[in-house]
Amino acid sequence: MLRHSFRRIGSIPLVLLALASSSCADSPAGPGATRGDEARVRVSVAVAGTPVAALTAEVTAADLASRLLFNLPIENGVATGSLAIPAGSDRTVTLRAFDAAGIETHRGSKVLSVTGGTNATVSISLLPLTGEQPLSASFGTVTIVMTPQTMVLQQGTSSQFTAVVLDAEGQGMAEPVRWATLNPAVAMVDSLGVVSAVDGGAGARVEIVATARGASGSGWVTVPGDGTQGSTDGTAPRITAFSFTPGALDVSAADDTVEVTLGAADAGAGVASAIVTFRNPANLIGRSCQATVPTGTVVSSATLRCLIILPRHSSAGAWYISTVSVRDRAGNSRSFSRIALENSGYRTRLDVASATPDDIAPVLRGFAFGPDSVAVGTVAQSITFTFATTDEGPSGIQFNRVFIRSPSGATTLSCGGGGTPDSGTPQDGTWNCVLTVPVRAEAGTWTVSSVQVSDWVGNRRTYADTDLQAAGYRTRIRVTH
């Protein structure tokens, strides 16, 4: 615990709203984790070209004393790091992405069995909470990192992808890599990862895949085209069917699930994925699911299914589909609004019963950190942040997160604390997190740009630098070499 004394405050002016860029990747942030045979797995998420500035990994299970929380660094457009997880079945791995303002942009989870030996590589889709572009995380003993993540090639030109195969400790492996293109009409790839642009037409996009030891990594190639050749694929998929069941849920006693079924057709590069989002009656909280066609499979039509889980204490009333987005293998996408779906005869309303709905966002009651000055000329330094947070709703605090910004604004670092509180209860407790300032980080005055607090049903508040200062909290950190 910090030795600072807290100032407990009332309301503050605020804005409602497979890994972070600090370097505390290998230690779970939650206290009291049960440790059996420990497995080490690696998570890799490509975030180049997205607004993502920080990501977190959370592991929960019935036999773990508390949630395990990990912060993983983003480097060269890839968030990657090693997680130490007690071996066992039914481990729920949840990944969350945040932008530089502390707003959660993506979320995805999967229930996995983790062994003390080799773990097969699986993919975890992070669905967009803002915008349309999903993220895909690789989770397993072996992962593949692609460099670069994206490239733009004019017709007739070539460039090369590099694929690095990493073990669970992040060490390179001397493994042969196989390369494939999902649309050879747009771009070809040889056995060394050299990509040759064939035909861009109206501006096509193709996924290039590298595989090794059961793991895969992807990069994307855009071929703008010069207007002299026909369009390879400039048309987004269309929806041929849409439904969900049941039409009513009851989350009074436990979480409940709705299954979405969607038909999509694409005459060009083939159907790739669909994302469906429901929003609560106040239009403040969204719940999404994504269905994908397996990598390497090209189909002109597909029936896609996915599950949306509404947690206990979710808002009561009429939830509506806000958007349905479909995407093809060339990167063309199309979004359908609630009105567009209803005009096509599709049902969009989901009735939710909740005896104890939680529609109140948590409140930050105390905030402190130390030290407020670090010298990182030869060694990295740690800063401990402490949050005192309350939640008047029944779901309890899920997460507290702080973002600090460099003097130039070019770098953002983050850490978060959640799960079992260091003191107090999930409704009124104190959490800590440790942020590492890297060696030779930018010198000068860094700013606490924002603090975000959220509960388990998705209510959240973000406090900007000015909000924190108005409440009497320090927001400046001095970094020297």
UniProtKB/TrEMBL annotation:
UniProt xrefs under InterPro entries: Big_2, Invasin/intimin_cell_adhesion
Transferase as UniProt keyword: no
Keyword hit for Signal: yes
Boundaries of every BIG2 domain copy: 146-212
Keywords: Signal
Annotated PROSITE patterns: PROKAR_LIPOPROTEIN (PS51257)
Taxonomic superkingdom: Bacteria
Alphabetized SUPFAM superfamilies for the sequence: Invasin/intimin cell-adhesion fragments
UniProt-listed Gene3D superfamilies: 2.60.40.1080
Signal peptide (UniProt feature, chain positions): 1-25
Coiled-coil region: none
This protein's name: BIG2 domain-containing protein
Species of origin: uncultured Gemmatimonadota bacterium
